[in-house]
Structure prediction request, 366 residues.
Amino acid sequence: MKRRNLSFFEPKRSPEKSRMWDMTFTFSLVVLLVLMIAISLGVVLTFVLYKADVFTGDGAALTSRGMFVIVLFLIFSSVVIGAVFARFVSDAPLRPFKTVIRAMDRLAGGDFSVRISLTNPALPYEFTELQESFNKMAEELANTEILRSDFVHNFSHEFKTPINSMRGFAKLLQKGGLTPEEEKEYLSIIVSESERLTALATNVLNLTKIENQTIVMDKKEYDLAEQLRRAVLMLESKWSAKNLEPDIDIPDRLLYTANEDLLNQIWINLLDNAIKFSNDGGTLGVSLRENAAHVICEIRDTGVGMDEPTKQHIFDKFYQGDTSHATEGNGIGLAIVKKIVDLYGGTISVTSEPGRGSAFTVSLPK
Prediction:
């Protein structure tokens, strides 16, 4: 006769429920231990007092009333002893919670450097998870605060610099006494800086609009390959000025259903970013392909590349790997790209090494 495998009939608990049950069992044992110690001490104390004839007096026989007094005293003494004992014993299991509460108070007060250590081997496994989760949360909040500070700093810098430049050259024009060539140069700078401000304001508005968007509207089928070719041609003046060699691998036709304006922002921002960080005489690579489930576009450059910390934050608002602000840009373009890709349920990844250029790959579901 074959032995039946009863594992199929056994109730299955998830790891989370199993660990919660272990924790409940541990605390139940602690409560039971306190109760047993309290009752034991109550019995000992009652027995000692009984032997001392406290309940009967002068060795008299034990009456039913005396028995009632003994039982009542036993209950009362056990409760009192248990309360006193629990008061001192409970401090040990509550100590980790007090540590977490104090750390949370410091975290709420803005001290994001706080970390907790609950490494006592006597503690249940759940406390190790609590420690890891809390420390990870504190680390993420610290990173968020750093990004927020950088956001404010970069935002202020991006607006203040062109405004100061425009004001300075406007004052020079106001004083007069300039040659026609100088006037023309200063006016060109003012126009250029005003266009920079306009582009920054437009990007901020676009990002705000996209961030508040949860679904994609106005979808229609159009030729994605033609759109990508037009985006490359639209930026011809920029990549020609840096003597970049286009390496285009785009099919003649690729139909895709989407919001044409939103996707156009992806290609323009990625191409502009690739051109901006390319070295003179480099290569601008653009490829487009599809498979059964996705449309995949890759935009490559042979520029300065990025290190790991830069790649981790490249899609954050106003983040710029070039902290010197030597290159044009405001750190909003890639944040817009990431948000649009997320709206479509797609993915965007970057492959890059310092000095070896970067490659951004966008994958959009069909």
